[in-house]
Amino acid sequence: MKTGFYNRRFFNIRLREEWHRIERSGSPFSLLTLNIADLADSIKKRPKLKIHQIKKIITNTVRDNTRDIDIKSWHDDTTLKILMPETPKPGADVLAEKLQVKVNEALGIFFGVRGVFDLEKNMTIKSYPEAMKNPDQLPESGPTVTKKPIANSPVRSANKKADRPHKKIRGSKK
């Protein structure tokens, strides 16, 4: 509520919704992943800086420079994901370049570290449906469970021994 960022569970729900929207209408979306693990390693070398301070600065910078409809979430301590509905690859590239500049400016102002956040090293962008052409580019947090058709589901019979021979039935000495 305070940051405007969502938890991982809600982010995954929204990602599935966007995935279904692609299947239905073909409208694009992009997924921007910011990895600050290298930044966190460089912060450890400076004892007065704490990772939560860096995350707070990055959170505020991302919130101020993204749209309200973009879904933002910290997936773990060093990974931030931004889901951008209705945004093709060129729009995601513009945001990535803007975030690189703004995050570096903010880190320079607040902590005196300059140029540590590198676009090519710290960000990945996947845009859909273009990425669907390459199966390796499917969303990491996307739907992993596929539903089986009802017609192929097994039907239970009254004879439990036949259905589950591995289970012992009370009174049985198998």
Characterization of the model:
The protein is α+β, with helices and mostly antiparallel strands and 174 residues long. It has a single domain, classed as Alpha-Beta Plaits (2-Layer Sandwich). The chain is 41% helix and 15% strand. The chain has 6 helices and 4 strands, in the order αβααββααβα. The protein has a 4-stranded antiparallel sheet, with helices on both faces. Helix 3 crosses helix 4 (89-111).
Sum up the overall morphology in one term.
globular
H/E element sequence: HEHHEEHHEH
Put simply, the count of helices is 6
| Major sheet: arrangement of strands | 2-3-1-4
- In terms of DSSP E residues, the strand content is 5-15%
Number of strands: 4
Q: Which parts are unreliable, with pLDDT below 50 for 5 consecutive residues or more?
A: 142-160
* Averaged pLDDT: 77
Described by strand count, sense and barrel closure, the largest sheet is: 4 strands, antiparallel
Query: Which bin fits the share of residues in helices?
Result: 40-55%
Which architecture does the CATH hierarchy give at level 2? 2-Layer Sandwich
Query: What structural class should be given to the helix and strand makeup?
Result: alpha+beta
Count of discrete structural domains: 1
Any idea of the CATH class?
Alpha Beta
Q: State the CATH topology.
A: Alpha-Beta Plaits
Question: Span from first to last CA?
Answer: 58 Å
CATH-assigned homologous superfamily: Reverse transcriptase/Diguanylate cyclase domain
* Overall radius of gyration: 23 Å
